[in-house]
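Per reviewer request, we include the raw input and output of the structure prediction for the construct analysed in the revised manuscript.
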Amino acid sequence: MKKILLALLCATSTTTFADSKVFEGLSIDLSAGYQKTERDAASTATVITNGVPVVSNIITSSNDDSNTNIILGAAYNFALNNNYLLGVGFDYDFADHNIGNPIIDNDPTDNAVNWELSSAMSLYLKPQLMITDKSQVYAKLAYIRADVDITEPGAATFVGSDGESIDGYSIGAGYANMIAGNVSLFVEANYFNYGEEDPRSNYTTYTIATPTDIDGYNAKIGIAYTFK
């Protein structure tokens, strides 16, 4: 009886044993997926002409846009014990994400340019939990930053309270599985929020300032390689 119990204990411990070392070390990853970016603007904008501000109504006060993200990342994962790791990493998105344009007083010529988020990047912490000897679930907490571009720079330029970029935070979760050697596949979803910003379209004789809240979410699938 003792031999049978010992055999069952050994079999159970073998099947549930987690080895965080398989994910430990420097890794690089490439992923692609879906992103939805939402811009909610105030119902009014301030048009400044020769230094004189005038408040005008906005007809298109919000915008939703969906497209593909293409992300290259690098991280270093520290094994805390057999079950837990903590990673620090960096992601860079090569895709541009349209956040639309407000139309002032129902006149598209007042602001006919589109704003885009570009060169989006994140610096993140990644707590990880091993669930089998080759797979894990994880959380992702990140500081994010992106440039705001205007699609017709000849018509207007962008300035914000802190220059041509905005920043915020993101939270997410994912699942990764080591499929062969040092190669793993992963799926991940994130919510991001750039907070309330004040993007401005600068024209020759006037400026349009529109208080704006930019957030959204993405989901992606990718492949990673861990250096050993």
